[in-house]
Design a protein that fits this description.
single chain; 311 residues; 3 strands
């Protein structure tokens, strides 16, 4: 397909055109973004400065927190800035880069969640072989596979979009550049491209969700042989992970596992996996995790004590 386009920028329609709603959203999403940065940085520092970093689960958690920051930073700062202006323009280049970055960091996060599910499955089903199976080298490999998978997926999506002709109109009914809204404004038949996008993003989301669901069925089946105390401890860590998976995959499946078209509800569902899920991840992993709370208390109390001693 020959690359032709007569437009150099797109006009994002945003969440709402009403001024009072935009001001409320500006304050609300500013607080959400601050909570995302503070919460995930808190996890990163607490784990890296404690012995928890030597445990595979928390090693993956630090990478998940990093991806949460990178992923939401592709969208949220621009969304907050656009809420203060009347016409929300984004250049063609920045729009394509946003699509690439969103899918790159998004798939990395999906694959890290899968690695975390595998880690919990091994820890509960094969506890005696856990440290051998989940060695640090193997953890490194799983993270590298996640990055490679993210690059392959995002590059394929980018190639599908980069040569689509855009002749006008240039209005995108969304608050960021996403694939289906862009297909809607392309001045060519995008049926085949839409099917390829669904086959790529939609099937990845579905297959990953099925694998995650299956791993937790195996875990729950294995927990029947555990004591009440053992079941409670295992369900505590697994419950946190299941909550994050549902919060992230529910809206994602709605967004990409469907015919390539747009709905008014798309923007609301997109808020869940671009802002709400990254904001709640730190709360889910800290409030429900005793080891995490102990590590945070130890690390930050030591820092405060050392600062007071230095003063």
């Amino acid at each position: 397909m020959e690359c032709k386009r007569n437009i150099s920028e797109f006009l994002l329609m945003g969440l709402s055109s009403k001024q009072n709603i935009q001001m409320f959203c500006f304050v609300f999403f500013s607080l959400c973004y601050l909570a995302i940065l503070c919460g995930n940085l808190l996890i990163l520092i607490s784990v890296r400065c404690s012995s928890l970093f030597n445990q595979p689960m928390y090693y993956f958690l630090t990478h998940l927190s990093s991806m949460d920051i990178f992923y939401t930073s592709c969208v949220t700062p621009r969304l907050i800035g656009d809420l203060l202006v009347k016409r929300k323009y984004i250049s063609y280049t920045n729009c394509m880069l946003q699509v690439f970055a969103m899918h790159f960091f998004g798939i990395i996060e999906v694959l890290i969640l899968t690695a975390m599910a595998f880690d919990r499955c091994v820890a509960i089903c094969r506890p005696l072989h856990y440290m051998v199976i989940m060695s640090r080298n193997r953890c490194h490999i799983l993270i590298w596979v996640s990055w490679v998978g993210g690059a392959v997926h995002s590059f394929s999506q980018f190639c599908l979009l980069i040569c689509l002709p855009f002749c006008g109109p240039n209005e995108i009914d969304h608050y960021y550049c996403d694939i289906f809204p862009l297909l809607k404004v392309a001045c060519t038949d995008t049926t085949i491209v839409g099917v390829l996008v669904v086959a790529n993003s939609g099937l990845i989301a579905l297959v990953t969700f099925v694998i995650l669901f299956g791993s937790y069925v195996v875990i729950l089946f294995t927990l029947r042989n555990y004591s009440a105390v053992g079941r409670h401890k295992a369900l505590s860590t697994c419950g946190s992970h299941i909550s994050v998976v549902i919060l992230f995959f529910g809206p994602s499946l709605f967004a990409y596992l469907r015919p390539p078209t747009t709905f008014p509800e798309d923007k609301i569902f997109a808020l869940f996996y671009t802002i709400i899920a990254p904001m709640f991840n730190p709360l889910i992993y800290t409030l429900r995790n005793v080891e995490m709370k102990k590590a945070m208390k130890k690390v930050w109390c030591q820092k405060i004590f050392s600062e007071e001693k230095h003063c």
